[in-house]
UniProtKB/TrEMBL annotation:
Xref: InterPro entries: Ubiq_cyt_c_chap, Ubiqinol_cyt_c_chaperone_CPB3, Ubq_cyt-c_CBP3-rel
Family classification: Belongs to the CBP3 family. Belongs to the UPF0174 family.
Source organism, top-level taxon: Bacteria
Domain Ubiquinol-cytochrome c chaperone: from-to ranges: 36-174
Name used for this protein in its record: Ubiquinol-cytochrome C chaperone
PANTHER family: UBIQUINOL-CYTOCHROME C REDUCTASE COMPLEX ASSEMBLY FACTOR 1 FAMILY MEMBER, UBIQUINOL-CYTOCHROME-C REDUCTASE COMPLEX ASSEMBLY FACTOR 1
Length: 184
């Protein structure tokens, strides 16, 4: 009884959204990104990896049946709600949050466009360059960027092979990053 009372006002897709978003976050937190591929283990570095995985999911949902498009919008809302929550946890006050949210949204959509163009063209070098520009903008070179680009290409293929109904049921799978790579 309490469960039904407490869940009033929740979107019907919330359980599915929570399941999908949980998988996206877990995939973005794969240790290889931070420990072996040089992604900074900072709030901004984690935002970058979360953005990569959100982009991959949203790109998979593009052009899919309307129900998946609606789910993609729910996921986008969840992503930005999570980003806002993270800003508040970092101590950003009520007056600073909207300005930073606007900046982060612009960053996300700019990255998504660059990643979409490179993936659509099958251009791993352009994808690696976009990742390097976004993930480690202060570095002259990022030797691991091609590894992350290859991971994104693999993830896009894995997501493309997943059934729409499975995604709508809250089941999404990303590949394991660095699988088969020798550990240094």
């Amino acid at each position: 009884m309490f469960k039904s009372i407490l869940s009033l006002g929740r979107r019907p897709n919330q359980l599915v959204t929570d399941a999908l978003y949980g998988e996206i976050v877990a995939s973005a937190r794969q240790p290889v990104f931070y420990s072996q591929w040089g992604v900074p283990d900072t709030p901004l570095g984690r935002f970058e990896m979360l953005s990569v995985h959100m982009f991959l999911f949203l790109d998979r949902a593009r052009g899919a049946p309307p129900a998946l498009g609606e789910m993609a919008q729910d996921m986008t809302d969840e992503f930005f709600k999570d980003v806002e929550h993270s800003l508040r946890e970092l101590g950003i006050g009520d007056l600073g949050v909207p300005k930073r949210m606007k900046k982060l949204a612009k960053m996300f959509y700019g990255r998504a466009e660059a990643y979409r163009e490179a993936l659509a063209a099958g251009d791993g070098e352009a994808l690696a360059a976009a990742l390097a520009r976004n993930v480690l903008p202060e570095s002259e070179a990022w030797p691991e960027a091609p590894k992350l680009a290859a991971y994104m290409q693999e993830a896009a293929a894995v997501l493309a092979a997943q059934d729409d109904d499975a995604l709508l049921a809250g089941k999404v799978a990303f590949p394991e990053a660095g699988k088969g790579e020798a550990v240094a």
